[in-house]
Design goal:
It is a single chain. By secondary structure, this protein is α/β, with parallel strands linked by helices. It is built from 19 helices and 37 strands. The protein has a 6-stranded mixed sheet. The longest helix is centred in the N-terminal third of the chain and has 17 residues. It binds beta-D-glucopyranose.
Length: 874
């Protein structure tokens, strides 16, 4: 790959983007859309090699070779997830591997992009390339060499914790977007890692569950996006935690060697997910090149080679793959200059994706966009209106340096004459637990937090003392003192670097469910969280954890991290409680023990209803919290949000809901609200984008990349043996009937179908013409904007199964799409190229065309098909 010039990416600067490959063209002329499989794209041309990799390999000792095959602790961590020390004497550089996929996760500030699900909702591979380019440049600027993104596992389970990190339920869409993103990342010189190969579709038991999935389903549903990423030139692949058909993904010969290398001709390297390696010789022989983040197994490779298994040539092959990529990216022999971060360009792309991926789910009698009269008396309700929910949790969590709240942006954009009032409705924050409920002693512990000691993420781990650390904090061991409350915020914060514990009891005044939380800032970064709350011997909250711990994605109004649990307390019963906090040097340590009492919960609801009753129009912001490591236990909105929406909608019929969720949620109140705008986790510019859409300064144009079910029981994975599985095995028994394929095949009415998304304008479809072209189809039609404002339509092409399918096939499958911008009254001829692969199914080791009479449907969603034409496929 050519060395990318250090350059800024501006909104107009999309020209460089997209080569031959993928989906959609939005052109001022007739639209020609290439096949969106991405699978047919060429492998990125290898850059002329500068280094003789084989000669380099011959100069390496066995130990040096092995050191390139497993991670290590970084003595100078930049907050990356993984590190390799390199072989400096031979000009092989150290490597830093940072998480994505919604921005570069590092210690230094980075652009918090909208979650990949929002990108998927744009159906725009060119935007995916620009999204990737932001991370590519920032990763390089922040000292990284490899990005642990994109993630392209298909959304199979509607409540899976990481749905927000990926590209939805359709393999063709995911393939188009992942290919674009890989090109964007790598075009800036950062190596992309496509993850997690394969069938890593939910979090429950993720480290060991055995995904039992037939070969045809793998090929048609779960592998196409990986194939597209490989064809787009991805330098690295990450093997998943889980087993696939009885074999750990990280030692699965079929996937890592058979499919990836022998069939797809992948020339990069495969690393394991973090702690997902289970052996040395079997894993490396199967095709795993690198164990991350440490060398629990692979560190023993030198000794293993010496005793004969594996052969040194196996190690050489793995090392050669790593070196070849380092060479390809210009990293060998002195490296290359790093660009500076372009924060403004990152912010522009973040905003553009947030706007383009917003999905208008419902808009009865055009309540949106808001008019002047609405703004003159607008009620805004919900915690995420005031505290922005920019991104999902886990390793994808990128904390924005700054993120304006939707409420702030609304007030700013609405300007003079607007009256925008807010009530939380759902109180996530509460108040400091009063002294009357506490009996506490506090101790200031000796010592300062120890400087960086790597944990599994490569970041520093909290520790207690450090000989020779700053003297000021080691000067005394405090005796326990009586403490009335734990409420050290703002001016009352504790000294930077200090370390404290509070122990005693908590006694509730009335019996009920309390949301008990530890809120904080300034804790020393640690994997477990350096500000913690333990109740009755159970740790229920940890704030300040590197990957978020169990803290909410929604900060308090004062910007504190908020972590805790809902606990049942009995009036008058004293429960043991411990709070511990260890501060980082340089920032005051803030700690608050807070609760939301049953009374406060009711009061917050009453306040919201009163505000809604008195206003002309109401916006309710609702959220869920998607995070790695845990699936949602229910598809319902959490934290009692449904009753609040119900009560507000009953109080004011002019109610619109704004969703910040990473995936489908149930909407028992659907019929009682006029509008629903899905903003996903919209990144650092999400507040501004949300306000622009609500006020009509921008027009929603996103489409759902996932089906929203009416009931959890309707999902294809509702049977327990499919999800979460039984006895450690999840049967992918639905086969290829994933997402909308299932709903269509079983005639189940979804809440909102795949591909659905309204606009502030209207589009008409006419004049479908289908012809055979290059092994596939060429599908042309006209789209007209019949409304009064400019808008963007994602026109979708679905291909029906033959009347007598050779294998069970879904009634329709997405075969192509085009994103078309149209002025009011404008008509455009659009051509979508359907790749031959879209006509085929996988059978006995090859793609076979499903011939016969097949109908091509064109429309605005998978259930809003406007044009139809039969073709004979041979
Ligand atoms: C996740 C990966 C991530 C890695 C490093 C793992 O737990 O599954 O997606 O890249 O951690 O943080």
């Amino acid at each position: 790959m050519a060395e990318a010039p250090a350059r800024s990416i501006t909104r107009r600067d999309a020209a460089r983007l997209l080569g031959a490959a993928v989906a959609v063209a939005v052109a001022p002329k007739p639209v020609a859309a290439a096949a969106p499989s991405g699978a047919r794209a060429e492998i990125a041309p290898p850059r002329a090699r500068r280094t003789d990799v084989d000669a380099l390999l011959r100069r390496m000792t066995l130990e040096e070779k092995v050191s390139l095959l497993h991670g290590a602790s970084d003595p100078r961590s930049k907050g990356e997830a993984g590190y390799l020390p390199g072989v400096p004497r031979l000009g092989i550089p150290e490597l830093r591997l940072a998480d994505g996929p919604a921005g570069v996760r590092a210690t230094a500030a980075a652009t918090a992009l909208p979650a990949p699900v929002a990108l998927a909702a744009t159906f725009d591979a060119r935007l995916a390339e620009r999204y990737g380019a932001v991370m590519g440049r920032e990763g390089r600027a922040l000292g990284m060499d490899v990005l642990l993104a994109p993630m392209c596992n298909i959304v199979r389970v509607p409540q899976a914790g990481r749905n927000f990190e990926t590209f939805g339920e359709d393999p063709l869409l995911a393939a188009a977007l992942v290919a674009g993103e890989v090109r964007g990342i790598q075009g800036q010189g950062l190596i992309a890692t496509v993850k997690h190969l394969a069938a890593n579709n939910f979090e429950h038991d993720r480290r060991s569950v055995d995904a039992r999935v037939d070969e045809r389903t793998l090929r048609e549903i779960y592998l196409p996006a990986f194939e597209a990423a490989v064809r787009a030139g991805a330098g690295a692949v990450m093997a998943a935690y889980n087993h696939v058909n009885g074999v750990y993904a990280a030692e699965n010969r079929h996937l890592l060697t058979g499919v990836l290398r022998e069939e797809w001709r992948f020339t990069g390297w495969v690393m394991s997910d973090w702690h997902a390696t289970h052996s040395a010789a079997p894993a490396i022989t199967a095709g795993l090149d690198m164990e991350m983040p440490f060398g629990a197994h692979f560190a023993g490779l030198a000794a293993a080679v010496t005793s004969g298994r594996p052969a040194e040539s196996v190690v050489d092959t793995a090392v050669r793959r790593v070196l070849a990529q380092l060479d390809r990216f210009g990293l060998l022999g002195g490296g290359r200059p790093r660009p500076s971060r372009d924060a403004a360009a990152g912010a522009r792309t973040a905003r553009e994706v947030a706007l383009a991926g917003a999905v208008l789910l419902r808009n009865e009698r055009d309540l949106l966009p808001l008019r002047r009269a609405d703004l003159a008396d607008l009620a805004v309700i919900g915690p995420t209106a005031a505290s922005p929910l920019a991104g999902g949790g886990g390793s994808a969590r990128v904390l924005p340096v700054e993120a304006e709240s939707p409420l702030g942006a609304l007030r700013r954009q609405a300007g003079r004459g607007a009256r925008v009032r807010w009530a939380t409705g759902v109180d996530l924050e509460g108040v400091a637990v009063p002294a009357s409920a506490l009996s506490l002693r506090r101790t200031r512990k000796d010592g300062m937090p120890r400087a960086a000691e790597a944990d599994h993420t490569g970041g520093p781990r909290a520790a207690t003392d450090q000989p020779g650390g700053p003297r000021a904090a080691t000067d005394h061991l405090g005796k326990p003192q009586v403490a009335a409350q734990v409420d050290h915020t703002g001016a009352n914060a504790l000294p930077a670097g200090s370390s404290w514990t509070w122990t005693g009891t908590l006694t509730a005044p009335e019996t009920g469910d309390y949301d008990l939380g530890i809120q904080g800032a300034g804790g020393v970064p640690s994997f477990d969280g350096s500000i913690s709350l333990t109740l009755d011997g159970v740790r229920i909250g940890s704030a300040g954890a590197l990957m978020g711990g169990n803290s909410s994605l929604v900060a308090t109004s004062g910007g504190l991290t908020n972590a805790g649990a809902t606990v049942r307390l009995k009036a008058g019963r004293a429960v043991p409680i411990t709070i511990a906090a260890t501060g980082a040097a340089g920032t005051p340590l803030q700690v608050r023990l807070a609760w939301v009492t049953p009374g406060r919960r009711q009061e917050a609801l009453r306040e919201a209803v009163a505000l809604a009753e008195g206003a002309r129009t109401v916006l309710v912001f609702a959220f869920n919290e998607g995070t790695e490591g845990a699936d949602r236990t229910s598809l319902a909105l959490p934290n009692g949000q449904d009753p609040v929406i119900e009560a507000v909608a009953a109080a004011n019929p002019r109610t619109a809901v704004v969703l910040n969720t990473g995936d489908p949620v149930l909407m028992p109140w659907l019929e009682r609200v006029r509008s629903i705008l899905q903003m996903w986790y919209p990144g650092q510019e999400g507040g501004d984008a949300t306000a622009a859409l609500l006020l009509g300064r921008a027009c929603p144009a996103g489409k759902l990349p996932v089906t929203f079910p009416r009931r959890a029981a309707d999902a294809p994975t509702a049977p327990a043996e499919r999800y979460p599985g039984k006895g450690g095995t999840a049967l992918y028994g639905e086969g290829v009937f994933v997402g909308y394929r299932h709903y269509d095949a079983h005639d189940v009415e979804p809440l909102f179908p795949f591909g659905h998304g309204l606009s502030y304008t209207r589009f008409r479809y006419d004049d479908l013409a289908v012809s055979h072209a290059g092994g596939g189809l060429s599908v042309s039609f006209t789209v007209a904007n019949t409304g009064r404002r400019e808008g963007v339509e994602v026109a979708q092409v679905y291909l029906a199964a033959p009347a007598a399918p050779p294998v069970p096939m879904p009634p329709r499958a997405l075969a192509g799409f085009a994103r078309v911008r149209l002025a009011p009254g404008e008509r455009r001829r659009v051509t979508v190229a359907v790749d031959g692969r879209a006509l085929a199914y996988w059978s006995d080791g090859r793609w076979v065309t499903a011939g016969g009479r097949r109908t091509v449907h064109v429309g605005s969603s998978s259930r809003d098909l406007r044009l139809h034409q039969e073709v004979t496929v041979r």
